[in-house]
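quick one, 142 residues, struct below
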Amino acid sequence: MSSNVKIYHNPACGTSRNTLALIRNTGEEPEIIEYLVNPPSKNELMALIAQAGLCVREALRQNVEPFETLKLDRPHWTDEQLIQFMLEHPILINRPFVVTELGVKLCRPSEIVLDILAVPQRGAFTKEDGEMIIDQAGQRMK
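---
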């Protein structure tokens, strides 16, 4: 079965891994885009941010180099400039963005993905940190 789900994924990120596992818990296999290897184009990135209902700064990761070095916390940077930094340094793109037929979300925390999955969960799911998100009946616990 082909999936209508796309995830901009970083396999080194626990939140991204949990989000991918929640998608797979529906029985679907999403299109996985490792955005550090294959970054989105400028238009794709701007569309993801807009469709997720975020401002550019909300899509910017702050706890990574080169955020501090570039002093990206300063208010004088325009959205255009911040997008350019994200394209030059994809590690600055917050993750994971997930695209489905129901919408686009930045899935932090990972269970936000449940709001845009068209297919129900097929069984229990526990995050890597041990927090149970889905019960045995496939129902969201919180």
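The mean pLDDT is 96.
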